[in-house]
Structure formats: C-alpha cells, structure tokens
C-alpha cells in the first residue's frame, strides 16, 4: 500500500460514525482491476477492532441488583443534529423516522455492556452501561421508549441515544442496566415490544413552574470517593447544589434540585460543555 493509499484509509477511518454494535459508515470501496482480488478487511471492522480494549462483550464481574435501578421519567429534549440523519451500515441504507409519535415495533432485544462502557455513542454521548439507555436503528436521537419483555411481562423506559443492533431480527440494544431490569442478561436476547413516548414541550412559564422538581444525573460509578470528589468539583464550577445518590454498589453524581425546567436545561448544557455528554435530566 503506497503512502497516498495509507493517508486515504486513515481519512476514511476518521469519518466513521460511532455506534454500539457496528459503526454507521459509507459502503466499502469496490476493488479495481489493479487491486488485490482477495476482499480486504473493511475499514469499519478494522476501526472497531482497534477502538475497543475488549474483543468480546461481557457483563461486569459482579451482578447488578435491580432494586436500585432508577426509572427514567421522559423529558422533552430536542433531537440532536446527528440523531436525525440517514446513514449506511454494511451497504444498507437506514432512513430515520421523521415523526415517531405513536411508533410501535415488535422483535428481539439484545444488550451491550462492558466492551462499550465509556465509549461514545452515535450522537457523541458517553455510553454508561449502568444507565437506562438503549440503541435503535431508525428512531431520532434522543428518544424515549417503553420496552416490554413479552416473554415475562416486565417493562421499563429507556432513553435511546445510540445506533444498533445491526443483526437480523433484533430491534433494540439495551444497556446492561435496562437488560437487567427486564431479565434479558441471562438469556442474551428476548422478545419485546417497544413503544415511543413523546413528551410535550413546555409551552409557558406557568406550565414549567407547576412541574415537579428536577435533578441532573451527571455520572455513575462503583467508586464512591471519585463520585464525591466530582460532585464537589461540579458544584464549585457551576455554582449549583450537588449530592451523591448511592444504592448498594452504584453511586451517582446529582445536581439540583431545580424548580424551573429552563434553568435545568441551562445547567445541563454547562455540564455537557465540561465533557459529561451522557448527563441527563430526571424528575425528583
């Protein structure tokens, strides 16, 4: 491979969109008669192989208890710019659903965990396997979805902020926490039905003030000392109250509470500017 070809390959790798199961990318280049007849490893596969420290996905060493997993309360969020763009994976074009209100779908759910923990999702947020999140191929990001495991009747709500799963028959990839909540961890996959929840945008100051108080969850970790340090640091930098919410082995950095939704949104934007792109708003 000559120098020009190497530079072109590196440029292509840098444009790959990040995803949970397979990164959205442009179709592979068709070999010309002067190139080797043996199909090369795709740039997408090479990128994935180099990007993750763990080759095969797995759960944390210690099982997670479902009792302390918080339910997400859907909040109005504008869609991200990248979360509304059509894209291509493995030669297949995916069209984003423009109006997902009332959208329902049945199929199989899978889950993803430690291999992807701490890496970026498709819209640039940090994947946290202990958060109630998920990946979907065609919903605008972020979206809120009610997921029901039709094998056992259990249901929960997740925030969709990633792309995938790119496997036949699978319609949603659950975070480790969400999969634990629905008892999908041991089975690996489960039959599910999903339904999009579309929160209404607050229209007036009066409506915003009548809503419950809000908190911002910044991060979660099993290391309490690190979480406490981060909570103090953010409180000083942003001049907002902070505290640590602990449930068994998991500790969360929480900011607030806030009475006004707009103020909460402003604080969330500041938090994300500091690098905590997976932070989200939740009700008290």
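-> sequence recovered:
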């Amino acid at each position: 491979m000559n120098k020009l070809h190497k530079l072109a390959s590196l440029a292509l790798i840098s444009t790959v969109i990040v995803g949970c199961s397979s990164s959205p990318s442009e179709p592979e280049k068709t070999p010309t008669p002067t190139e080797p007849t043996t199909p090369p490893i795709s740039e997408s596969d090479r990128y994935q192989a180099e990007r993750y420290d763990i080759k095969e996905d797995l759960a944390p060493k210690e099982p997670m208890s479902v009792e302390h997993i918080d339910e997400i309360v859907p909040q109005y969020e504008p869609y991200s710019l990248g979360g509304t763009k059509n894209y291509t994976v493995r030669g297949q074009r995916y069209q984003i659903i423009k109006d997902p209100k009332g959208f329902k779908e049945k199929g199989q759910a899978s889950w993803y965990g430690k291999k992807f923990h701490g890496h970026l999702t498709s819209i640039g947020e940090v994947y946290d396997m202990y958060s109630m999140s998920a990946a979907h191929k065609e919903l605008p990001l972020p979206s809120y979805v009610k997921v029901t495991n039709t094998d056992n009747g259990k249901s929960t709500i997740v925030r969709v902020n990633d792309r995938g799963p790119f496997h036949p028959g699978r319609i949603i990839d659950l975070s480790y926490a969400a999969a634990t909540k629905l008892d999908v961890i041991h089975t690996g996959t489960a039959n599910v039905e999903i339904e999009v929840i579309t929160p209404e945008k607050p229209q007036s100051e009066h409506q915003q003030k009548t809503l419950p108080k809000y908190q911002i969850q910044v991060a979660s970790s099993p290391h309490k000392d690190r979480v406490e340090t981060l909570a103090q640091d953010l409180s000083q930098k942003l001049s907002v109250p902070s505290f640590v919410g602990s449930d068994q082995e998991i500790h969360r950095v929480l900011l607030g509470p806030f009475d006004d939704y707009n103020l909460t949104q402003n604080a969330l934007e500041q938090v994300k500017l500091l690098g905590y792109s997976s932070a989200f708003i939740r009700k008290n």
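The longest helix spans residues 224-238.
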